[in-house]
Amino acid sequence: MVEKSRALAVRLFVTIVIAIFIVEFGIMMGIQSIGSAQKTILIGLIDSIILIIIMVPLLYIWFFKPIIQQINEREKIDKELQELNRELEERVEERTKELERANEKLNENIEQLEKWQKLTVDRESKMIELKKQLNDLRKKLKKEGKGR
Question: What pLDDT digit, counting tens, does each position of 36-51 carry?
């Protein structure tokens, strides 16, 4: 993309220089048509070349240089953006690994809690059953004690 922009800027610059040369040469040919043909062509060429020598630095300073600076800034920004994207991807990858490790640890803790819950529920159920049996035995003993 940046290379295409540079090539386009160079082509545009060269086209403008050639256009200025052709226009100036045509104007000079028209003005100088009052003299001999060879002299007219020579004067037109010299005048057009002098105009181009004057215009090229001005065109470079006002037109071509700012375009090249923008292209260079875009390249720099693009490189910075690529670096930031790479760093972000690394951070996302590291954070994902951290979350996976934390998730594994949580799953292990959940498994342990479920085991403890099952143990405590089973013990509590046994305790309730034992209390019921104990109460039944007490009632039975009371009845046997009254019946004697």
Answer: 767 767 777 777 778 7
